[in-house]
Amino acid sequence: MSHRGGSSSRSENSIGVVCCYHNVPAVTNRAGTESNSGRRFYGCKFWMVPKKNCNFFRWVDGAVDEGDASNSGIDSTILNLQENLRLAEAKAERRKKERKIVVQELRKVNNDVRVIRHMFAVVILLNVVLLAVVLANRSSMI
Question: Which Pfam family, an example, fits this chain (predicted)?
Answer without folding.
Answer: Zn_ribbon_GRF
